[in-house]
Amino acid sequence: VSAAAAAAVTNGLGGGEQAAAAPVSADQLDVEAYAAQYSGRTRVARLLFIAERCGVEAIQLEALRMAHDEARAREDTVLYLDAVLKINSRLGPRYRHDQAWVDSVNRRAEQRKEKLETELNGYRTNLIKESIRMGYNDIGDFFYAHGHLSEAFKSYIRTRDYCTTSKHIVQMCMHVILVSIELGQFAHVTNYVSKAEQTPDTLDAVIVAKLRAAAGLANLETKKYKLAARKFLETGPELGSNYSEVIAPQDVAVYGALCALASFDRSELKSKVIDNINFRNFLELVPEVRELVNDFYASRYGSCLEHLEKLKPNLLLDIHLREHLGTLYNDIRHKAIIQYTLPFISVDLNTMASAFKSSVSMLEKELAALITENKIQARIDSHNKILYARHADQRNATFQRALQTGNEFERDIKAMLLRANLIKHDFNQKNWL
Amino acid sequence: MESVEALVAHIQGLSGSADELAQLHGLLKQADGDALRAHSAGLLPFLSHLHPGAHSLGYLYLLDSFVSSSANLRAHAGGDLLVTVADFLTSCSADQIRMAPDKFLNVCRVLKNEVMQLNAPIRGIAPLRAAVRKIQTSSEQLTPLHAEYLMLCLLAKQYKAGLSVLEDDIFEVDQPKDLFLYCYYGAMIYIGLKKFRKALELLHNAVTAPMSSLNAITVEAYKKYVLVSLIQSGQVPSFPKYTSSTAQRNLKNHTQIYVDLSTCYGTGSYSDLETFIQSNAEAFQTDNNFGLVKQVLSSMYKRNIQRLTQTYLTLSLEDIASSVQLNTPKEAEMHVLRMIEDGEIHATINQKDGMVSFNEDPEQYKSSEMVEHIDSSIQRLMALSKKLTSIDQNISCDHAFLMKVQSGRERARFDYDDFDSVPHKYF
Questions:
Q1: Per-residue pLDDT tens digits for B87-113
Q2: I need a surface site. Which of A50, A136, A313, B404 has the fewest CB within 10 A?
Q3: Looking at beta carbons, which residues of chain B come within 8 Å of A422?
Q4: Tens of pLDDT along A86-115?
Q5: Residue limits of the PCI domain (chain A) (predicted)?
Q6: Domains and CATH numbers, chain A
């Protein structure tokens, strides 16, 4: 385990936010196996992301090399140029900037584009709906393949007017969702998912699963973790690797489990995650995550948090999860602390610190913060390092509140009578200035 | 026109019963104006023929026309004139002077100006206090004299004297403009006595009073309101919905640094607040609010320490010092000690271990004093409630109100649900 990962462990989870900028080591990550899960543009995008964020040179170069080959094979000049820039001549002559190739690809692309556009114009004059639709679709596909995402988006949207069957609509929605995810416009994703789900025909199970996964992703990116968890947990196992141009089934498992841990309470966790047969198929793909969910439910918080720490460096290289990892981890840790203290009247901070594998002073600070936010009803005896549960004395509180309400009432009524009087005289005298 | 001597004779003769007084009043009004004014310089010796208590009305008229001329005042500056006026104010008869309130107010104002010129505001306090009581028709009425009196008390630094007048609740206001000065000066007196809650009430009234255009008093009152709310509760409440729209829209524009101060306070950092105050020190000085601002600064420590009592049962002095941003544990001990003495927190300091244990509020609400306190509160509130219902009934029988409701009923039907009878916070 490299120095950075070790540092991340000793820092506790608080180090998550700072690590966002610094490169992270992940020499356990098998780049080839990881990339093999995905297809299409997302494979290249993810590889570039890994190269950017990873601190280890060997992995960086490996990822960049694969990204470069992939981009070249797909004739995607935008991604190719990006990859070459990042490689920066470190990989030898074959990986240098090949402007001739770029130019030839662009020329061919221009020709194809003109051909498609003339075809489309021909269809438009003929006013045959189906061919117009297919024409726009082809153009959309073309733009997408060459990395011009906003034009692809526009073309796909245009097909909407020419869709006749619900199958067409679903196809359009899937295209739009794909492009929106890459563009990062997740509001559109949610929109089109609901549009697709509302079509009158029953949908193919795979498509349903894809829609759920896409919806979950959109919720995750817009920080609605509870909704994201629900969507991921409802994704059927039919998803398999059919949606590899967006998401892999391991990702569904990881995202779903983390969001659920951070936002569900115990009963929901049990019913929707642990007892969920469909989701179990996903969890089998990532046994570490399955272990940590079970640990959390069984209150083995120490080992749960250890698993989380181990997974952290690899998860930081995931293109969708990265920004949210810090918040999710914090939420999970706070939940663990709150659940730990719930059943007790008094807790010795030393035992608690060893259970959570952190120092007593750090734990004390975390507890103080949680108490101030009113998430734990307790008070800390800093001298003896004990946490005492505290239940407000109802009788005293009631007296206090009653007296206070009386005072406020008195004050407000007096002020009101005064104001009423002022208004009365104002009407009698109009403008006293 | 009668001569002054004849007038004096009338006064002496007709100051008996109410009818006589009415007649006298008529005569005096006739004589007022040119006649008296022409002879004003020579009126002083005639005053000695009259008794201020029995012949208040006549005395008042003569006195008023005497002091209305500034030449006379300058001639008799200081000395006897003040004594005469003061004597009159303390011994005059309330009924008689209420027949000529403007003149009475004028005389009082002159007295105030005189004592201010002599730089001895304290001489005006006792006479003016008596004057306030005499001209009030009921203890709930506000007169223009209230503001003048409070101003004198402030200048003379006799805050306790001002308290006697402030303790009466004011419900009747003839001139809305008196209210602003009254609230402002009254609040300053309470601030001087460190009774921040009552000061806040008065400032709140000044800020939320109905007004069609902003006036300078309200702006100053708002500045103090921000500072006192920060000291009292750590935050500035937003405008309640009965505040006039002029106030809501414009007050913050004129008091921008105070608004910034309150946001800075909200961050909870002592050093930030200190730097902010230093950089804006002149602005605060020109507003004469620097003393209050310093109190706001020290209240920041108190608030942070109070927050600690919510989370900890015991805490070492070093930890207190570090979390409240004090420099040494000794300072922390001092602050905690002072707060315990002032009754702001309940705690015990263990010097041997350097620990402070925070205790719960020992009030058990079982003692007989508490029962008495609760009982008197209940009585007070019931009286207030009764007053409210009677005012409500009066308005419901009022002609203008009934007309409005009638025309309203023709246009739309009002449901019970449209009107919230009690604000939700009382539930």
A1: 888 887 777 777 777 878 888 888 888
A2: B404
A3: 173, 176, 179, 209-210
A4: 777 777 767 777 788 888 888 888 898 899
A5: 224-394
A6: 344-389 (1.10.10.10)
